[in-house]
Every structure is written in structure tokens, then in C-alpha cells.
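Q: What residues go here?
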């Protein structure tokens, strides 16, 4: 608990990371209390043709969509779907990628090389393109999108864990533990994993943002959750034919995607500075690094 409190204190001192944390907390609260916060919760599943494409007003804060649904209420319930996609996809990638990275690092023979070459094959193709191909092959549905995202993101965890494990294997305390006769599994569980957990946590935070953005892209292409499920990417796609007249239709879900992805990226950048002192940067260097990542 003291370590957790220290991390929170460090994040509170970092304005950028604090903004990211606030955005993520708001997302979670919105998802949890969506039925209470929604002004028209029934509009998530019902159709009201007589109310279609109404502009923002006191009755409909973000306006209505092509089916007469309240966009504000659909955004709130869509937050639940966003969290489910991010948590399940990144969690599955974590469960696949971390063990593979550990095995490849510890067994530096043909088996380890084979595992890393497989991950290189996945990394050679842009994740968005590969996810689109898998989702298109399996068919448009929410489970298929999550499966496609999981199958395309695990190599990032594998590469990270492999590099960090290789670095730690040269440390004196690892060599001393091996000299005392510790088994590889004891080294992994008691010494390797605790020392690379900070890097994994940062990758999880950054991966959540990227996975949510990729899921929105798949939804935009019609490969994600199908109507009437409130999926933000799908809502943006449906709004195209009504632009620029119904500008509010695309603005609300687009802004929601932007804020959530930015929140996870800002928090991930802040966590990296807090958990790994070697990577701490001044504000100017951090901004430059962010520009390089964006390019």
C-alpha cells in the first residue's frame, strides 16, 4: 500500500499523468453509472424515427442519431463496451505474450529462436491491417474483434519481456541466485517478474489506448459490434452521410474516442517516468519524445 501511495503521489505531481488518470477514472465512473447518468437509457435499444437528427438541446444534450436515439445516452453505454474491449483484448495479449517472452529468453536455443521469429512475423505487419484481415475473415462481431485484437497485440508484450529478461540475466543478483542452484521457474517467479512488472504495467496502459483506437477503427469499417449495440467507432461511421448538416452526430463519439485514448497514453507516459527512473525526462524531452512516437 505504501508503494501504491507513492506512485499516486508521483502521478499527482505530474500534471500530464494526472490528466490521464482523471480521464480514465471518469471513463470507469461513466461506465459503472451509465444507467443513472443516461437521460434516455431506453434509446440505446429502441428506435424513434420521429426524433431523428435533432440538434443538441436541453432534452438531448448531444442531439439524436439517425434512428432517433439519444447520442448522450448511447455514448455513456458505449463506455462499457469500450472498457470490455480494452481489458479483455489487452488481458489476453498479456497472458499470451508474457509467457512466450520469458520462455524465449530463458531457453536460448532453437525453441526460443522459433518463438521470437513467430512474434517477428506478427510485428512485420501493421497491427491495424492484420486485425482488419482477421476480423474480416472471422466475420463482423464483438467477440471476433476482441480475438483479432488479442492475436495482433501479444507480440508487443513478448518483445518487451524478452528484452527486459535478457537485460536482467546479466545482473549480479540473478547470476548469484543461479549459482545457488535456483531453478529457472524460481528465477522467473521470484526475481524476473517482479523486476519487469513496471515495464509491463506501462505497456498495459499504452496498449489500452492503442487497442481502443484500433477497435474503433474496426467498428468504423463495420467489423465490430453490430447495431443497435452502442459502439463509438460504428457511430462515427454512421454519421458520415449526414455531415456537415448533423455535425453533432460525429462530434460526440469522436471526442469520446479521442479523450479515452489520450487519457491512457498520458497515464502510460507518466507511469513510465514514475516506475522507471532511468526513463524520466524533463517536460521538454518528454514532449519531443511524444512527437517522435507520433511520427
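A:
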Amino acid at each position: 500500500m505504501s508503494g501504491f501511495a507513492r506512485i499516486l503521489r508521483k502521478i499527482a505531481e505530474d500534471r500530464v499523468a494526472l490528466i490521464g488518470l482523471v480521464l480514465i477514472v471518469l471513463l470507469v465512473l461513466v461506465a459503472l453509472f451509465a444507467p443513472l447518468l443516461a437521460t434516455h437509457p431506453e434509446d440505446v435499444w429502441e428506435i424513434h424515427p420521429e426524433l431523428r437528427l435533432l440538434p443538441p438541446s436541453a432534452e438531448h444534450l448531444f442531439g439524436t442519431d439517425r434512428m432517433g436515439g439519444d447520442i448522450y445516452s448511447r455514448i455513456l453505454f458505449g463506455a462499457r463496451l469500450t472498457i470490455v474491449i480494452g481489458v479483455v483484448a489487452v488481458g489476453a495479449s498479456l497472458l499470451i505474450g508474457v509467457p512466450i517472452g520469458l520462455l524465449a529468453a530463458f531457453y536460448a536455443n532453437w525453441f526460443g529462436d522459433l518463438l521470437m521469429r513467430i512474434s517477428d512475423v506478427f510485428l512485420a505487419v501493421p497491427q491495424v491491417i492484420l486485425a482488419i484481415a482477421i476480423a474480416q475473415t472471422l466475420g463482423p462481431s464483438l467477440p471476433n474483434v476482441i480475438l483479432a485484437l488479442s492475436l495482433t497485440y501479444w507480440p508487443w508484450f513478448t518483445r518487451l519481456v524478452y528484452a527486459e529478461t535478457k537485460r536482467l540475466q546479466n545482473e549480479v543478483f540473478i547470476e548469484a541466485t543461479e549459482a545457488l542452484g535456483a531453478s529457472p521457474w524460481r528465477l522467473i517467479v521470484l526475481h524476473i517478474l517482479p523486476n519487469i512488472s513496471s515495464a509491463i504495467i506501462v505497456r498495459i496502459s499504452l496498449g489500452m489506448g492503442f487497442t481502443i483506437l484500433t477497435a474503433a477503427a474496426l467498428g468504423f469499417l463495420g467489423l465490430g459490434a453490430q447495431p443497435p449495440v452502442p459502439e463509438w467507432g460504428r457511430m462515427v461511421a454512421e454519421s458520415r452521410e449526414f455531415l456537415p448538416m448533423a455535425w453533432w452526430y460525429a462530434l460526440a463519439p469522436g471526442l469520446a474516442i479521442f479523450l479515452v485514448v489520450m487519457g491512457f497514453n498520458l497515464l502510460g507516459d507518466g507511469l513510465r517516468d514514475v516506475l522507471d527512473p532511468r526513463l524520466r525526462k524533463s517536460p521538454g524531452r518528454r514532449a519531443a519524445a511524444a512527437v517522435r512516437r507520433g511520427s
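A: Context that may help when evaluating the design: The CA atoms of residues 93 and 157 lie 7 Å apart. Residues 184-220 form the longest helix (37 residues).
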